[in-house]
Amino acid sequence: MSVQRARVVEIQPGHATALVAAMGSEGNRVQARFARGCRCFGVVDGEDVIAYGWLSTRSEWIGELSLEFTPDEGEAYIWNCFTLAPHRRLGMYRALLHAIVARARDEGMSRLWIGSIDDPAEKADADVGFAPVLHLTVTAVAGLRLVRARPAPGAHVGLVEAARERMGLRSWRALGPARHRIH
Questions:
Q1: Is 33 helix (H, G, I), strand (E, B) or coil?
Q2: Can you list the domains of the chain with their CATH numbers?
Q3: What end-to-end distance do the CA atoms of the chain give, in Å?
Q4: What's the pLDDT score for residue 183?
Q5: Residues 133/152, Cβ–Cβ less than 8 Å
Q6: Per-residue confidence at 141, pLDDT binned at 50, 70, 90?
Q7: Which one of 16, 26, 142, 147 is at 20 to 30 Å from 64 when CA atoms are compared?
Q8: Residue 177 buriedness (CB in 10 A; 0-12 / 13-18 / 19+)
C-alpha cells in the first residue's frame, strides 16, 4: 500500500478486531487500554490495520524506562507506535503521526509528547514537528535500572524541566527496581 492511499482512523473500542490482530501477542492489551481511556489511531488498508499508535492524556508506563509518564492538563503522550513489517519504510508512521497531531491540535491540546528509540522514527518525528527535549540512557543490572537523562542540544530549559517532571525524574539520574508491567 502506498502512503498516498493510507487512511488513518481513530479505532473505536467496539471495532478493534483488526487492531487486536495487528498487535499480535500484545493484542490482549487492547481492551484494557481502551478501558482506562487510551485512544488508538491506525493506518488501515481495507479491513486491516497496518500501523497503529496510542494516545493518552493520563499516566502511562514506559516499559523501556520502568517509569510512568504523566501528561499535564491539556497535554497527551503518543506511544506504542508500530508499523507491520511489510509496510515499513513507506511513510506509514509519518502519516499516522500527522493524523494524531492534527486531531490533537483540533481538540485544543497544548502539547504532545513522544519518545523514540530508532533513527527512522526520530526523523519522522522531526518531520511532523517534534523536537528532541531529553536524551535518556538506561542500564539494567541485577534487577535494578539506572536512567540517566541529559538535555537534548538546543532544547528549551522549560521543556527539559517539564519532561523530567512528567517522568518523575527529580534529578538527572534515577536508580530503582527494574519493573515489568503489562500496559
A1: helix
A2: 3-131 (3.40.630.30)
A3: 30
A4: 64
A5: yes
A6: confident
A7: 16
A8: exposed
Residue 25 C-beta-side C-alpha neighbours within 13 Å? 1
- Answer left, alpha or beta for residue 171, where phi above 0 means left and psi between -120 and 50 means alpha: beta
Residue 56: beta bridge partners? 77
pLDDT value of residue 119: 67
Query: Whose grid coordinates read 506509514?
Result: 92
CB 89 within 8 A of CB 118: no
In degrees rounded to 5, what are phi and psi of residue 89? Answer: 65, 25
pLDDT one-digit tens code per residue, 62-87 = 888 888 999 999 999 999 999 999 99
| Residue 122 CB coordination number (10 Å) | 15
Quick one: pLDDT at residue 116? 78
Beta strands in 48-161 (DSSP E): 48-56, 60-62, 67-69, 75-83, 111-114, 134-141, 144-151
Is the pTM for the entire model greater than 0.90? Answer: yes
The phi-psi region of residue 167 (left if phi > 0; otherwise alpha if psi is between -120 and 50; otherwise beta) is: alpha
CA pair distance 178, 63, nearest whole angstrom: 9
Q: What does DSSP say about strands 144-151 and 173-177: parallel, antiparallel, or unpaired?
A: antiparallel
Q: Which residues is 10 bridged to in the sheet?
A: 41
